[in-house]
Records
---
Amino acid sequence: MFRLAAMKPVDEVFGIHHQRLRSAITLLCRGWQPFDELVRATAAPRRTVEELLEALGDDLERDQRSVRLRPTAVANYAGYQESDASETDSELLATISGLIERVPPPLAALDHVQATPETVLRRALWLAGNYDLARARTLFLGDHDLTSLAVHALRPDARLTVVDLDERVLEYVDRLSGGAVTTLHADLRVGLPPAVLAGAELVFSDPPYTPEGIGLFASRGVQALADPVSEGRLLLAYGYSPRHPALGAQAQRELALLGLTFEAILPDFHRYFGAQAIGSAADLYVCQPTAQARKTKKGKTGIYTHGPQSVEAGGTPATLLDSLREIAGTGAETRAADWSAPISTKGPVAIDLTADPGPWLLRVLLAANAPRVAVLLPNSHPDLADARAQAELTGLLREKYALRLLRSTPDNTHAVVVADAVPVGEANPLLTKAHGKLGNVWREALISSSDGAMTKNDARAHIERHAPGLSAHRLIDLPRHRIAAILGK
């Protein structure tokens, strides 16, 4: 890292947006450059270029309207000169193609449509070319396309986090990155994990292409941006058919109402295998939040274009909910599919998860602390699909709940999972305090179970060995495979 005359690194002077100034430094290293050409070539504001030139101090030579770096100083700026990466790009494209070939199959109910390898590479190169990824904290809201892995392969020093609803994607990204990409579970309709709130400079997402979907994902993206929010960028993929411009207007209106301004819209930036109704393409929206962009948006269940969580999907019949409450027990309290806070009651709880795409069941049972929980699900729910899936769910929660899986109840298309709490002395604190910071809860549990023989430092060391880098996170926000590994330790 070279240092300017002002004795500050360039990334401290210009933040994550100094990639444009790389172009300016490259030009200055090549020889005399008219000031106007520096502005034009970098697309940086005039005052920003002036600040760069001022910061270069005595390393800069001026000749009327042109400037250059002194030939004797050029070597000091080698790390900021741009180079031709075409050969590297070709190798990276082959790597990305291999990753995408093995990615878990798309889920139509989550509006998954696979981006082409060329698109994923283009995203990574564009991010690296426009932002300082070593300095920026980058969050991906959903990543079935594996853009995070492409960025990681291109820039191993980038600090990347993926938040996704799909447990399969989280496990795949975690395994392929060797844990270098942080993976967290969330359904954005419920909310973001606290660990990523106000913590990112860049947020990237390819959300559901409904006004409700893009509005929700953009709102969560704004919540994830660090202060001051106007310095961050929200990058969204969005496409609509030119035959139906009103759909594009609705989505853009959602973004404008969130206090976002369009810094750029790059047409047909993304290409897909499928999505032919919109020409198998989508634009890249580069959104800059304004000072009014902190408003939250309540998540609706219907944000997708297909399946039980689509915008047009109806609600659960009252007769089914009556049957669920009867199974739960007298005086059962009805709760929504929400695990953002503990579900603590002294009596039984009934929860309707008929729209569950798969991950909700585990999350609500981690959140619940009640003597009995009865959950209504589709008969085809992944955790009920076969004996292996049922055994995995039962084993995962055995230190908190004893489960009864009632298939074809109350009718032949639904099922009910009844969870009865184990005796207090047999419950695992990691499961009963799933909203606490993992490091704190686990440390106290280890010390308590050792009758004081284990010190706090011993406990911390144990946790770091078995769950490196996860102490500040909540168990309920971790991917399922991580939860299983932790409970096995």
---
Amino acid sequence: MNWNSGEQLHDCLRSITAVSRDGFGFSNIIVVDNASTDGSADRLYNLDLPLTVIYNDNNRGFAAACNQGAAISKADYLLFLNPDMRLFENSLSIPIAFMERPENQHIGIVGIQLVDEKGDVSRTCARFPTAKQFFAKMLGLDRLFPRVFPGHFMVEWDHKDSREVDQIMGAFFLVRRNLFEVLGGFDERFFVYFEEVDFSLRARQLGYSSFYLAEAQAYHKGGGTSEQVKDVRLFYSLRSRIIYGYKHFSWIAATILMIGTIIVEPLSRIVLGVAHRSGCEIAETCRAYRMLWGSMPE
């Protein structure tokens, strides 16, 4: 999915042309452009790829755009790839060979080791969030007492070995097509954020695991185009959190989470902004919460 990603999209696609295709082939590469205004989805056809570009008239969100692209693919595996990714030679051949092994048929989702521009390994795997975890984050307890209130991401693990995990990051999200179809794709109520968490949890409930494969690597810039609009990013993250709570927690826990999100957390975020002496951080928080409060009837 692309939204104003600039040269990142071109770099991502160019990296795909150089990957090893040992043991598999590309059915198609699909770029779904969510009404970009920077021309990033133009001039892509000089690449040696079976490329299809879908131009949306409006920003449909991450989940809807991914479903839109998956709907026209007939491949056995679907790879959802952020435009701020760059693949290496074995970024695809290793995870696909891993999923093809008979003993791994219960693994429905695979992610690989993501590194930054310095080659440092990013800690990208996460636990399924709980109501307790969200409450701790609201109050900053995950930062004050991380051993008692572990955060969403598994930062205590160096990500240098392979293992089954609750959730792998959606920046590189390799899924069996049959699982994607059974689950009905991503839940489009999540405009952006938490859609891959929800998908991974629903897969687990069907008996499929998510696996982090450290033997393969790719470059991930991180932040992506959402760095341009931090207030909007915060708004959608909070909104998706509330949706996730009502979908997977009890009604009472979800309602307490919603009240805490719209009343308690803005105060703690403003206090944090004051402590950081950051007027921008305070302004971004206020704009995000105005959008959130305005969206609550929906």
---
Amino acid sequence: MIVATPVVVAAHVAPSAAPAQRVAVQPHAAFDDTTEPAPLHWLRGTPVAPVAHPKIALVRDPAFHGLATGGAARRDPEILGFAQSGEVTSGSWSSDLNFSLLSTIAYFGVNVNSDGSLVTSDSGYAGWWSPQLTQLMSSAHAAGDRVVLTVKSFDNGTIASITGSETTRQQLIANVINQLRTRGGDGVNVDFEGTDSSVSANFTTFIGELYSALIAQVPQQSYLTVDTYASARQGGTMYDLSGLVPHLDAFDLMGYGFASASQAGPTAPLHGDWYNVTQSVTDYMDTYGVPASKLILGVPYYGYKWSVSNPTPGNDGVQPGSNDSADTYSGALSDFACAQQLRQFWDPTFDEPYATWYSPQTNDPCGGNWNSYRELYYDNAQSLGDKYDLVNADGLRGIGIWALGYDSGSNDLWNEIALKFSVTHAPIATVTALPQSENPTGCTVSWTQ
């Protein structure tokens, strides 16, 4: 049982000046479970046919599927969620996922080698081919949800090697398309989280070549999203946002990972702090020309906690912290159920909740035994709802959940999606080619129920 405690609105003390080139990088690394060795004698699932009737049609002119270019309401939002390999192979997905409130599930993920081959010896690849993913894909497709493959690397050298050579780019592209053909995935999510800005041009070339190959070779399985840092505007990262715009269906702007390891602070501040989600969305659209129809706002179902010396309200997001660790939303609720001297606060500057409690040196009911106060910043239904208001106000394509299952055992985050978005999904679109002289876009769309 969760112990109810009063939520206090905390006065905020302005943070000290942050380094000019501070960036939020590699937020997905904290929970990466793809690199463990594959289970011995793991079973291989059967292929699944691609989704026949997706909720959101794969039509690349925004006007055809009701996506606004900014400000106006859309016919239907994109609700993308990442399903990690452990979530899939454990079978937890069957109770954690609400297919009726999703449109795209990104399996996370398959790792890549520097020569463009796929890593086939780890849990990520085993999960991709697991019988459990076969079941998930079948359930998703029955609901009209796409299932796409995340190909990933967090290593600068690997990213540079793959993107820096036409041979390795084409090798990886061929391997990815082969996976879609043989497994039945509906597209690709690229999660290359590097920190070397010198690979920016080569990365753009890779994405452009991948996009063209997908459309040419597997057009019904060609939905392409790319994960990019919220703080790309701050410099020091590998994404040429303007250059990428023509070569993908959507950016997944990872709107989280703002806190540092040494300072307790918000995970995904909507306002305030050294940089924030609102500034990031504005920079993507106004500085780099990313249209709203191609912008998915990634939202966190997790937070971070630290050991701190002074958890006094008003000193909430600026004090030194140590022993930092990531905490899923369900983990936060578990902490609240066992914590001693628990106090919960709402920070009106960051639009994010935080909580403090005491962790004794021994016999900590939460098991930490930190001999210090702990402070946790995280996102709940209220703070996520405020971010969804931004999505609706700016007419963005939708949201990207990192990650599905982090709220296991609770429905309040699903309820917030249903409250803020009309996730009824558009009727199925039939796309028919017309002569260029009759229609400069080359296609027309009719809608069927």
